[in-house]
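Provenance

Sequences were taken from public entries as deposited. Structures were produced by running a predictor on each sequence independently, with no templates supplied. The record for EFR3 homolog Bb (S. cerevisiae) from Cyprinus carpio is shown for reference.
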Amino acid sequence: MYKRWVCGCCGALRPRYKRLVDNIFPEDPEDGLVKANMEKLTFYALSAPEKLDRIGAYLSERLSRDVARHRYGYVCIAMEALDQLLMACHCQSINLFVESFLKMVRKLLEADKPNLQILGTNSFVKFANIEEDTPSYHRSYDFFVSRFSEMCHSNYEDPDIRTKIRMAGIKGLQGVVRKTVNDELQANIWDPQHMDKIVPSLLFNLQSGEGTESRSPSPLQASEKERESPAELTERCFRELLGRSAYGNIKNAVTPVLMHLDNHSLWEGKTFAVRCFKIIMYSIQSQHSHLVIQQLLGHLDANSKSSATVRAGIVEVLLESAAIAASGSVGPTVLEVFNTLLRHLRLSVDYELTGSYDRINIGTKIIKEHEERQLQEAVIRTIGSFANTLPTYQRSEVMLFIMGKVPIPGMHPTLPSTGSGTDLILIDRHDNLPKFSTISIISDISVLKLKVDKCSRQDNLFMKKHAQHLYRHIYLCSKEQSSMQPHFEKLYSLLALISMELANEEVVVDLIRVALALQDLALSSEEMLPVYNRCAIHALSSAYLNLISQLTTVPAFCQHVHEVIEMRQKESPYLLPEDVFIENPKIPKTLEKLEGELLFQQAKITEVLGGSGYNTERLATPYVPQFTDEDRLSKRKSVGETISLQVEVESRNSPEKEERTPAEEITFETLKNTIVDSVGVEEQEKERRRQVVEKFQKAPFEEIAAHCGARATMLQSKLNQIFEITIRPPPSPSGTITSSYGQTQSRSVPVYEMKFPDLCVY
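Predicted structure for EFR3 homolog Bb (S. cerevisiae):
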């Protein structure tokens, strides 16, 4: 009796906040929180906020004691009370209360019981959604990042409990991100030490649910439990994380993704890697897309000696990412993207030819040719996808850049596969490419329903500057002995697209000259081409001339091409595509000398096109590819200057007799001096203009007026001489007159005074 009275007396002396806290716990924990007493405790905390930290500390003390004694019912009541106090109280003293709260959450997360871990996680998620009024300078979430990441990898025996633990870990990470991502006073959640834990944990769960994704029912048919899978929750969390990333944080968020795919060999499957980067590209801000592309390109460089399947996987991810990011995918480093892809295309070809990734230690790794070919086709498709996102003017520059990087045929013993043809997106702007996938003689191209627009000014400038480079590559690729049907089909497609997308009158003339040059190439015995190649070149030339003749709509031209094709159909069908570009080509063992009506005649074509206003002088000049750097000599304006190997210098000193000097041979030194001299001339011209401007700015008005008057007088004098020569009336029929100096001069009379014969008048 005395002991009970002492306890009651001591209880009455306890602080009020402790009595209020004790009263929220019922005698039986199954009865749950005493709500009436919880309201009293909440009112007390709001009335006396300075006591809030003590309330939190006491609740934490009771929770720790209950956890140790395995009284889990009271643990749940304590956490419920903490949650309600946390939601109700927003004052300056909340920080000290939060410390007690986080201490209790940490205690629960460290417990071995899954239910306690889940309970602590749920409380932390509620806390993460609260916007605090006052900042915290010393709070750390490092433990929670590590613990939640560990829960994401849970291997608990019971699959249902394992799923719950993993989902709790995912929610916990989501709560940490929400709580810290926008708080500058907290430790930066984007630091690699945190991202290296968060991102792999999310990817682990995203990958775990990948196998069952295709077998799961539709969202409308699935139950709530099936819809709330770890993979779906992970994807939402991952998207939220990426959506909150700023410009400077993209790299830290993407790098762990690349490392995870490397460590688990997930590039080779491609599917999961593509899915990850689709999530990334759709989640980040569009203006940051090029940063992801740059990281992928850098990772491709880092794996330059990895297997072809790994590199192909990275390239496939690049392809999908470029399609999503559209015009923002390339960013400011346009040419660097294509430079990297072309470099890896060249590396793949080298690996295929040498059979090793290491040129020094040949045979260190086994190269599978078919895998390298697949990689090359993937790179070509990716180049086309990137080019398709660019505006028209940049496509022209990229085309020139690619042509400068591609080696001249003959540098390698074999040509790689031409791929799927997506590299021709570069110039196919009206989807005409599928209509030229095969080479054939089309009697009426109107059935193709081609879309042809007038050539733009940018395209005219591009072709004027770089057309000869294009023609040279077409010609040299045609004469390559290893060329097969796919190569000729791509050449035909390229010629057709140039004719419709980039052709003006000058380009049409040059393309006809190239086609006739290909015919001469097939006839030449010096090239030692196989019979198939000769027939294929003849077939290519005939198919293209048939197309370009109908595009020009010159009847006489079309008639000549039609007559030659008809003659070949009767006597030499192996010169037409229908007998050459088939599975079993119908070609002779030897090719006899061709002449007459079986060949397209350059003189005839020049004559018929000249009558329609085309440049006959240009048409009559046979096309000859040049190996000089004429592209860089901007002073050369005509094809005649680029083709000619000699320059004839005419002497015009004597008006009575023309004398020609021997032709001057053009050498490399001459070209070099021409470039240097042209630069000097430009500098002199700039200096002269500067002096003229300075003179007009500083000279007296009288001097300027006198100078202009002198120039005007001189100009008028020259004009008078020209008029005297060009419009002087013919001499009078009356004969000549004699001047006072004894010289005879023709006497000019007005036209209306001249007498004409009757036959000249009507």
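The CA atoms of residues 513 and 624 lie 9 Å apart.
Residues 668-698 form the longest helix (31 residues).
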